[in-house]
Amino acid sequence: MSMFLDRHHAGRCLADRLAHLRGSEVVVLGLPRGGVPVAYQVARSLDAPLDVVVVRKLGVPRHPEYAMGAIGEGGIRVLDPDVVARAGLSEAQVREVERRERVVLEARVVSLRSGRARVPLDGRVAVVVDDGIATGSTARAACEVARRLGATRIVVASPVAPAGTTAAELAADELVCCAAPVGFRAVGDYYRDFSPTTDEEVRALLDELDDDAHVAPRRRSLVLEDRANGPSRSVAGVVE
């Protein structure tokens, strides 16, 4: 039975669980592509900036759907040594998979950010958001990226994850989920609409919150200026 109508609904549910972070120095990091609509709702609720953290799954050769690890921006690589050993892979084979995925990752970074500067993480709380956690390898890679970029605390937030998933195994300080079912199979099972998210949708969501971030300070400054002219007056509307 579906728990969430779609990713935006899941994001609103998740935002309720993250209310304790409101007012903190938070940056919300969506995992493209599917994690970004979820992260968008979280960022709106927390009044926090939204960015992406780009990672790629490393699939076992001949069985690419079976993750042996993940890579992330900044040269991050996370491997599951047990999976690598069971698959009988050499370091050269692992490096070849990484090389191919690294090309895709770098192209994805360029496509999704479209020249937009990365939101600084130094001294801030990074909230890493995905639409669901399965093996956890991509979430862990994202946490490693955020840690390397200076985040002082990392919260992994996901609408759903397998029962027993811990923050420690994801290299995070805190794990927040709406549900952690026993017998977890696939993330899509918990959504009524699990349609693929496109790069265009990701860019649109990033642009929308980026525009809001520029308008809101201007709106606040107008209110402050007007209050200085008289305590009983107020300003409505937005100046373009």
TrEMBL record:
Transmembrane segments: none annotated. GO terms for molecular function: glycosyltransferase activity. CDD domains: PRTases_typeI. Residues 10-169 form the Phosphoribosyltransferase domain. Keywords: Glycosyltransferase, Transferase. The keyword 4Fe-4S does not apply. This is Phosphoribosyltransferase. It comes from Nocardioides islandensis.
